[in-house]
Specification:
Length: 312
């Protein structure tokens, strides 16, 4: 078979079109590269203070657990001279006692370097209230919910159910309190006493830090520390919060009392956005859960001691 004959008259326009196509794609690739560099540079400038003086916003939303990323961010804020103050936006029922303690300690170190204020939106209870008291001033909405000062350890007794369906438990342990409590049987007095000691120790620390940070005596705090939730209007009356307001009022207080310049930009430092395919995957996962009638966020299961108020 002979090779096809190429008409020179058609070959020249085809080659010209190919060159134009390649040129267009090179331009598109260059523009995409510039956009990516600008995006990364903008994020770097925000995180490391290259954008000039600013107020940093830290958002504490949902269930509180320990977070290395959050600790790293708070440490970076303490070291960044362009960050003149930090506002902590809280909307949380609390979480693990360890997570609340971690936040309390980290915010205390940050507070030693620059002003830190908190404002509670709909909810700031238990470990979330522990977070709020670590700041210089607490702003609240009158009818939002706070307090729930207390510690909880919760377990279940499914012994009768297991007996009914013919399931038994057997174990070998190094001591009578190892792997206790168990859902296979009720707590023994010894197990209950050991768990109560655990709860009491954490609760005592919680009460002490509330008293210290709010300028109250332990005797004044204890009647408020029975686990109850209260409105933030009641919290102001009980000296657990300072005044009514949100972010605008918190920033106004910083300007009037901490010498900040008015109209400083406010940048969210935590949580950081999840760029690229990670963010797309999270969005798709949330949409899929919503389509099935499930919460858009995967629930966080807490083991052990918690300082949590949760509306069912």
């Amino acid at each position: 078979m002979s090779d096809p004959i190429i008409d020179p008259a058609n070959a020249i326009p085809a080659a010209s079109a190919l060159r134009r196509s390649r040129f267009v794609w090179r331009i598109v690739a260059f523009v995409a590269l510039v956009a990516a560099v600008l995006a990364v540079g903008g994020r770097y400038a925000t995180e490391y203070g290259l954008s000039g003086d600013q107020i940093a916003r830290v958002v504490i939303d949902g269930t509180i657990t320990t977070s290395p990323e959050r600790l790293k961010t708070l440490d970076a804020l303490a070291k960044n001279d362009s960050v003149k103050a930090v506002v902590v936006a809280i909307n949380s029922p609390g979480g693990s006692t360890a997570g609340g303690e971690e936040l309390y300690e980290a915010l205390g170190k940050l507070r030693a370097k620059k002003p830190v204020v908190a404002y509670i939106k709909e909810l700031g209870a238990s470990a979330a209230y522990m977070t709020a008291i670590a700041t210089d001033r607490i702003f609240v909405r009158r009818l939002s919910i706070t307090a729930s000062i207390g510690v909880l350890f919760q377990t279940y007794n499914a012994g009768k159910l297991m007996e009914t369906i013919g399931i038994g438990e057997d174990k070998v342990a190094s001591g009578p309190l190892k792997a206790e409590p168990s859902i296979a049987h009720p707590m023994t007095p010894e197990v209950r006493a050991s768990i109560q000691s655990l709860v009491d120790d954490s609760f005592s620390w919680f009460v002490d830090v509330v008293a210290e940070r709010r300028g109250m005596s332990r005797a004044d705090v204890l009647p408020l520390a029975d686990g109850r939730i209260i409105t933030d209007n009641q919290a102001i009356q009980d000296k657990l919060a300072d005044e009514v307001g949100g972010e605008a009022e918190a920033i106004d207080w910083l300007v009037k009392n901490k010498g900040l310049k008015a109209d400083l930009p406010v940048n969210t430092w935590f949580p950081t956005d999840q760029p690229g395919f990670g963010g797309i995957g999270k969005w798709l996962g949330g949409e899929a859960r919503s389509a099935l009638g499930l919460p858009s966020e995967t629930p966080i299961l807490l083991d052990g001691l918690v300082s949590l108020w949760q509306a069912q």
